[in-house]
Amino acid sequence: MRWRRIKDSLATRSMYLAVALANSIVFLVALGLFVKARPILATTSVVQLLFSSTWHPLRGQFGFYPFIVGTLAVTAIAMILAIPVCLLSAIYLSEYAHRRVRELVRPVIDLLAGIPSVIYGFWAVIVIVPLVRATGGALGSSTTGYSLLAGGIILAIMVFPIIISVSTEVLQTVPVEAREASLALGATRWETVKHVVVRSALRGIVASIVLGFSRAFGETMAVLMVVGNVPKVPTSLFDPAYPLPALIANNYGEMMSIPLYDSALMLAALVLLLVVAGFNLLAHFTLLRIERRS
Amino acid sequence: MPHISLRSLNVTYRDRRALRDITVDVPDAQITTIIGPSGCGKTSLLKSLNRLIDLSEEARVEGEVLIDGVNIYHPKADIIALRRKVGFLSQKPYPLPMSIYDNVTYGPRMHRMNREQIFQQIAELEKDRSLGRLCPESTRLTARTRRGGEMDLLVECYLRVAGLWDEVKDRLHDPATGLSVGQQQRLALARTLAVEPEVILADEPTSALDPISAKLIEEEFQFLKKKYTIVFVTHILRQARRIGDYVIFLYLGELVEHGPAQQVFTSPRDEKTRAYVAGDIS
Question: Which of B218-221's residues contact partners 24+ apart within 8 Å by CB, and which partners?
Fold first, then answer.
C-alpha cells in the first residue's frame, strides 16, 4: 500500500519536473543570449542598435534595422501569399472534397512538411530565383532574382503544409449539426462555410496561422539561400534583403576576432526571439478575444 | 394531393440498406410521428425529406419523394427552395456562432429578403390568427419608422411564436451559445420558422432536453400544427401517443404500418406493431 502511494507521488513529481524543465528552456535561452549580448548593450544604446541602418562591424557600428525590416518583410510577404491559398485549400479539403480525395492529398501534404529546408532552398535557387529575375526584368527592374520576393515565395511554400493540415483538421472538428443548421434554412454551401463553419473554427484557424508564422519567422536555411543577404533596407520586392536568422547563420563563427561582433550576433538572436515571443503573445490575446466574443 | 408523398424510397449506406421500399403519404397540417427502435431508419427517412441526407457521402437514395407533386430527387430540383419550404429541427440544437438576434435573421438574410417582403411575411403570419402570440401594436408601429426595424419586428415575432421572447428580450445581442440547451432548441425553432416553411421536420427534438424544456417544445408543436405540416421522429412511445395524429412505424428499415395514431396504438394490424406498442420489443 505504501509503495503504491510512493509511486503515485513519484509519478506526479516527475511529470511536474518534466513540464518545469520544458518551460524553463525559453527563459534559459533568453537569459543566455542576454548575458552574451551585454557587452554590446554596454557600449551602444538599444535604440541606436535597433534603429540604425549602418552595419560596419569593422568600425564597431552595428545597426540592426535593415535586418529587422528584412525579417518582418520576408515573413509578411510569405504570410500574404500563404494565408489565402492555405485557407482555400483547407476549406476545399474539409468541406468540398470527396473523402477519397482527402485521403489522397493528406499524405502528400505531410510529405511536403517533411522535406528538409535545404532542399527547398536548392529548388528555390533553381526555379524561383530565375522566375523572379525574369518577372523583375519584365517589369523594368534589374534584379538578380535573389530578393525579398524569392525569399517570401519559398517561405510561403514552406508554411503551406502546416497551415493547410492544421486548418483542415480544425474545420473537420466542427460538428455536422453546424452545417445542417445552416443548410436546412436554405443557405448555400458557400454561405454555410463562410458564416458558420469558418466562424465556428476561427480560433483554430488563427492558431494554425500563428504556427505558420512562427515557423516563417525563424526559418533560416532556405531563405538565406535566395534572399540576397545584403545589409540594406529593401525598398522593393525585387531588392535583396538580409533577415536576422540569415545574418546569424552566415556570420557566427566567422570574423570572431572583430570586437563585439560575437556579442552583436547574440543580440540579433535575442531580438529574433523577442519578436517571435511578442508575436505569439499577440496571437494568444487575439485568440482570447475571439473566444470571449463567441 | 398530399403535401409529402414517398414513392418506393430506398436509402443505402455503402452496402447497408437503411430504408427499404418506403411508400407512404404524409398528411397535411397534422403531426406525423415516425416511431421505431434505434437504428431502424427514422432519421434517414426524415433527412431524405429535405435532402440533408446528401451530407453523408456514403448515402445513396433511390425512388421518389414528391413534395407538392415535385420529385425533390430530380437532378434539376432546386434544393435551396426545397429546404426553405421544409424546415428542420435537429436532435441537439446547434446555435449558429452569432448573436441570438442574428440567429433568427440568418435565414431571411441568406435569402436576401427585403424590407417589404419581411413586412408582408409578418403581416401574413399575424393574419393567421390561429397562432396568436403576436407582437404588440407598438412594436409594429416603431418597426415601420426605423431603419432595420423590419428585422427587429421579425426577431420579436418569431421569438414570441417560439415562446422564447420573454426570456431573451434583454440580451438579444449576446452570443446564442450562452443560452441553455432548452432555450437553444426554441431558438432553433424560431430560426426555422423565420423562413416561413410549410413543413417542419423534427428529429427527436426533445431528447437532449430536461423534462421541463421538453414539455415546452412539445406544447410548441401542438400549437404549430395548426399552421404547419409536422413530421416528428421519436423513440419515446408515450411522446408519440401524446402528440401524434398520424403514425409511421418503421422496423429494421421497413415500413411496417402507418395510419391514424388512434388506430395504430389501439388496434394495430401488424404483429410487430402490436409487439412494439405493447413494449414487448424495442
Answer: B218/B242, B218/B243, B219/B163, B220/B162, B220/B163, B220/B186, B220/B189, B221/B31
Q: To which residue does cell 427514422 refer?
A: B42
Q: Which secondary-structure segment (H or E) carries B200?
A: strand B199-203
Helix (H, G, I), strand (E, B) or coil at A254: coil
Neighbours of B270 (CB within 10 A): 13
In this prediction, residues B28-44 reach a mean pLDDT of 90
How many domains does chain B divide into? 2
Task: Determine, yes or no, domain membership for B117.
Answer: yes
Task: Give the separation between CA A105 and CA A118, rounded to whole angstroms.
Answer: 24
Tally of structural domains, chain A: 1
Q: How far is B18 from chain A (nearest CA, A)?
A: 20
Interface of B with A in 106-145 (CB under 8 A): 106-107, 110-111
Band (B232; pLDDT cuts 50, 70, 90): very high
Predicted pLDDT of residue B9: 94
User: In this structure, what C-alpha cell is assigned to residue A276?
Assistant: 517571435
**Which residue numbers in chain A have pLDDT < 70?**
293-294
B97–A200 C-beta distance less than 8 A: yes
Angle between helix axes A202-218 and A261-293 (nearest 10 degrees) is 170
Residues B258 and B128 in one domain: no
Look up the pTM and report it. Answer: 0.86
Positive or negative torsion for Cα B160, B164, B166, B169: negative
Cell of B190: 424560431
Kindly give the pairing relationship between strand B246-251 and strand A61-62: unpaired
Cell of A294: 463567441
B193 domain residue, yes or no? no
Q: Which of B1, B33, B31, B11 is nearest to B258 (CA)?
A: B33
C-alpha cell at B212: 421541463
Q: Which pLDDT score is estimated for A31?
A: 94
C-alpha cell at position A49:
542598435
Cα–Cα distance measured from residue A226 to residue A251, given in angstroms and rounded to the nearest whole number: 16
- Angle at which helix A202-218 crosses helix A65-91, to 10 degrees, equals 140
- Interface probe with A: pick from B106, B173, B181, B184, most Cβ of A within 10 Å: B106
The position carrying cell 410487430 is B272
B85 and B26 share one domain: yes
Owning domain of residue B135: 98-178
- Bridge partners for B61 per DSSP: B11
Torsion angles phi and psi, residue A28, rounded to 5: -65, -45
The set of cell numbers assigned to A174 is 466542427
Look up the CATH number of the domain holding residue B65.
Answer: 3.40.50.300
What's the sign of the alpha-carbon dihedral A69, A71, A73, A74? positive
3-state secondary structure of B71: strand
Last residue of a domain, one of B122, B150, B178: B178
A184 interaction partners in chain B (CB closer than 8 Å)? 50, 52, 83, 87-88, 90, 192
User: Across chain B, which distance is largest between two alpha carbons, in Å?
Assistant: 63
Residue entry with cell 397534422: B30
Please give the pLDDT value at position A1.
Answer: 78
What the block records as the C-alpha cell of A137 is: 526584368
3-class secondary structure, B21? strand
Nearest to B106 among A185, A200, A294 (CB): A185
**Amino acid occupying residue A277:** A
Classified as helix, coil or strand, A275 is helix
